[in-house]
Amino acid sequence: MVTDLLDACVLYPAPLRDFLLNLACSGIFRARWSDEIHDEWIRNLLQNRPDLTAAQLRRTRELMN
Length: 65
Description:
Number of strands: 2
Shape: elongated
Radius of gyration: 12 Å
Oligomer: single chain
Number of helices: 4
C-alpha cells in the first residue's frame, strides 16, 4: 500500500480533507501528516474563519490522529 504525506494545503479545505480521509479509510492509500502540518492548517483556518474555535479544530485533529 502506498503512503502519502498530506500537507496543510490539502487538509485546510474541509471538503478536500474529508474526501482524502475517506479514501484513506477505504484502504486506497495510507495518509500521514506531522504535528507541524496540523499546526499549520489549524493556524491558517483559525485566522481565516473566526466562526471556528480552537477547541473544534483540536477535536478534528484528535479524530484524524
